[in-house]
Design a protein that fits this description.
By secondary structure, this protein is an alpha+beta fold. The chain is built from seven helices and five strands. The longest helix is centred in the last third of the chain and has 18 residues. InterPro entries: Pyosin/cloacin_T_dom (IPR016128), Pyosin/cloacin_T_dom_sf (IPR036302).
Length: about 180
């Protein structure tokens, strides 16, 4: 049988390289099955992006895919409900719910410790009223500040500095502007 060689040999960059046994997780979306040669058992290669960090800002789908059993919630800022209303007003019937959901999956989000998100967020679960969603959809920039400011006291209690909080706020505004939610 022919030999399989991978060149160049990858240098360790931004993640951990581990060997068997495979992790206990049951989500195999991050695995590649390799069948090296006939009559040899398959090899599973696990591809892992670096874990999400507290206050990391990015697109929802990226952060959510990297947050696993880490105590973090991936929080849309502004809320997913406000963004959905904004899109429906902007696009009207031109966009289907499926189109809107795809856009929202790329919405700007931040990794927040679950206990802080649950305890302080003004838009967590039932606190995100229809009136709040409408208000936030009308002024995305103000909604970002309002949504983030609500969680700042909890984040400060956890030991996050004003420098870290200001950096996260700036990143939330910058990425929302880059995505065209407001100017």
């Amino acid at each position: 049988p022919s030999q399989i060689t991978v060149l160049p040999i990858p240098e360790k960059v931004g993640s951990d390289i581990e060997s068997l046994p495979m992790p206990e997780e049951k989500d195999f979306r991050d695995y590649i099955l390799i069948l090296p040669i006939p009559n040899m058992p398959p090899v599973y290669v696990y591809l892992s992006k670096p874990p999400v960090k507290p206050l990391e800002v990015g697109e929802y789908h990226d952060l959510a895919g990297r947050s696993r059993n880490d105590g973090m919630d991936i929080d849309h800022i502004p809320s997913k409900g406000a963004l959905k209303l904004f899109l429906k007003a902007k696009l009207g019937k031109a966009a289907t719910d499926k189109d809107i959901d795809k856009i929202l999956n790329s919405g700007v989000s931040i990794a927040i410790p679950h206990r802080i998100h649950r305890g302080y967020s003004e838009t967590y679960k039932g606190r995100n009223t229809k009136a709040k969603q409408v208000k936030d959809a009308l002024d995305i920039g103000a909604a970002i500040d309002s949504n983030f400011d609500a969680q700042v006291p909890g984040l400060r209690k956890e030991g996050y500095t004003d420098e870290q909080l200001n950096k996260a706020r700036e990143e939330l505004h910058q990425l929302n502007k880059e995505q065209g939610w407001y100017k």
